[in-house]
Amino acid sequence: MLTMVVGSGYLGGHIGARIRALGGRAVLCSRRPPAARSAAGLPWRELDVRDARACRDLVRRVAPDSLVVVHGPSDITWCERHPDEAMAAHGAGAENLAAAAGGIPVLLISTDNVFAGTRDSYGESDEVAPANAYGRAKLAAERTFLDTGAALALRVSLVYGWDPDGHRPNYFTTCVRALRAGRVVEAPQDHWNTPVLVDDVAAWSAELVRTRRTGVLHLAGPERLSRYAWARRIAAGLGLPEDLVRPVAQAGTAYACRPRNACLHSEQAAGLPELAGLWPVDVDEGARRLAPVAVAADGPPVVPAPRPVEE
User: Fold this and answer.
1) Which residue segment(s) compose the domain that 31 sits in?
2) Which class of enzymes does this protein belong to (predicted)?
3) More exposed terminus of the chain, fewer Cβ within 10 Å: N or C?
4) Which of the four pLDDT bands, split at 50, 70 and 90, describes residue 309?
């Protein structure tokens, strides 16, 4: 089985690596070559999802059995400032990919930002009401793919891991780097998340794309935590100074445009046989697993750079 992973960042690279570990094949596609660590030695092809012809031509050449779509800008603050560009990448990009796929199974990685954030947590049956431009763009992508009848929208909560090479490192990486350098981490105590380890998202994605499930599914970590509480747990788990974590209000921070409760739960996952044994770990176990690379002076070893796909 060959999967075309559209989006070659931290999450896309992990999903591709998981697919390969399970015996499948994966090709990463994005506008720019991925960082070596993110690519995990996977083949890469250039693709701008805003170009309908490029999408059509690349799907024809690669001839994948399925698509995993992790495309478009994920910087929520940037999307709020550039809503038209966000919609062009996510919404119009989804239209181009859906047309190019022509019924091939698609797994779209979506977001908790499709909800208003007024409730503590959201399940699959809850009404969507995007909290920001990013949420509106991702919801447009969801609807485009779901209308094909061959897609699954996997909404994930805040994904974390050790990502030293990323263009915009995730919250775990940002906290660890600051604490290791002795800098204060100002963390909102009124912004709530259900953080999920990147390895768990990759594991679910690889299984779900293999079984070709359709519809909507939620994936989140098992705990609802404020950013402040989580940052302190990160510090404690890695033996870093907890007193450098300072509580602040969400308003006035980079997280101001995010829903107050960016939290998910699943009403369906427990009944899916392909997910048996793949339950997400809590943030303490996540920190324990990431500690060997997160506290190392040079981070994880560099893997081979991505190689071009043979025509």
Assistant:
1) 2-294
2) oxidoreductase
3) C
4) very low
